[in-house]
Design goal:
84 residues, mainly alpha, elongated
């Protein structure tokens, strides 16, 4: 096992834990059955309050962590195959 594989494994663990924490920190969007059937949404013309910036930043961080997880997973697998 090379040092690069070890660093990759550590990055995988950190990004996995970060994704879990960020997903748990996001607020759930609850909709009742009438909203689902009528197609109404609270995301129109200023209904986004001041709290939306927190949710947007958490969603963006979650996406970044998911991309990092994907790239590091591919890199560790490719490096592992080349090392053999």
């Amino acid at each position: 096992m090379s040092i690069i594989e070890l660093i990759g494994g550590i990055l995988l663990i950190i990004s996995s834990l970060l994704i879990i924490v960020l997903c748990l920190a996001q607020s759930q969007k609850q909709q009742d059955m009438s909203t689902a059937l009528s197609g109404q949404s609270d995301n129109f013309y200023g209904k986004n309050g001041k709290g939306s910036s927190k949710e947007e930043s958490l969603a963006a961080l979650t996406k970044v962590a998911a991309v990092v997880l994907f790239i590091v997973t591919l890199a560790v697998n490719i490096i592992g195959q080349l090392a053999k």
